[in-house]
Amino acid sequence: MKPRPLLPILCLPPLRKGQAFTLPELMVTMAIFFMFIAGILYCHLFGVRMFEITKAKLGASDEARQAISLLISEIRTAKNVKIGSGHLGSFTEISLNTPQIGNALQVYSSSNTNSYVRYFWDSSDSKLKRTINGGAAMNVVAHFITNNMVFTSEDYLGNIITNNQNNRVIGLNMQFFQIQYPVYLIGPGNYFDFYQLRTKITRRALE
């Protein structure tokens, strides 16, 4: 029986005493390491910035969602809706043959014209507010709205109409400016980010 031949042994050159990286090798290694750390820091800072921007938009979305939920419900069940210009103490409906666009909206739940809900944009503090029957008590619906013409009356194609046709569509456009959510008032004008919400609402019961 023949003996099995031995496998060859890989021989490596012995390390010299005190052998280390050369200066060019060390510099290349450090450069790659610092580039890797810089990339990680950039990605982290970019993520933080995107988080702050998204948080501002989500905050505005949350407030706007609460604002329009009640408004949509009241318009859908309304007997009549009027668009005009107004504030806490008064309301003037837009006349016929004039583009139906304004800063105020008056919603009537019945044929009783003394019972209504008024939404209006207040130029003194850039807030959309809600009052019942023109009383002194009012609720702030949305903050930091910069466009004064919030409400429109449109046809099914989205064109602003000049009459009060029965099947008209009520348009709502709110443009927000705020720094983040919760809101912090910092800097001139206290504005940092921009957000816009647009929706259209129709009444359920058309006559």
Q: Could you characterize what this model shows?
A:
The structure is a single chain. With 207 residues, the chain is α+β, with helices and mostly antiparallel strands. The chain has one domain. Helix content is 26%, strand content 28%. The protein contains one helix and ten strands. The strands form two sheets. It has a six-stranded antiparallel beta sheet with strand order 2-1-4-5-6-7, covered by helices on one side. The protein is elongated. The termini are far apart. The model has no long low-confidence stretch (mean pLDDT 81).
Structural class: alpha+beta
Percent in helix = 25-40%
Report low-confidence residues grouped into runs of 5 or more. none
Number of strands: 10
Radius of gyration: 33 Å
What form results from the Cα inertia axes? Answer: elongated
Oligomerization: single chain
Order of helical and strand elements: HEEEEEEEEEE
Number of helices: 1
* Mean pLDDT over all positions: 81
Name the beta content range: 25-35%
For the termini, the CA-CA separation is 110 Å
Compute the number of structural domains: 1
Largest beta-sheet details: 6 strands, antiparallel
Which strand order spans the largest sheet, edge to edge or round the barrel?
Answer: 2-1-4-5-6-7
Give a quick set of tags describing it.
207 residues, alpha+beta, six-stranded antiparallel beta sheet, four-stranded antiparallel beta sheet, 1 helix, 26% helix, elongated
Summarize the structure.
By secondary structure, this protein is an alpha+beta fold. It has one domain.
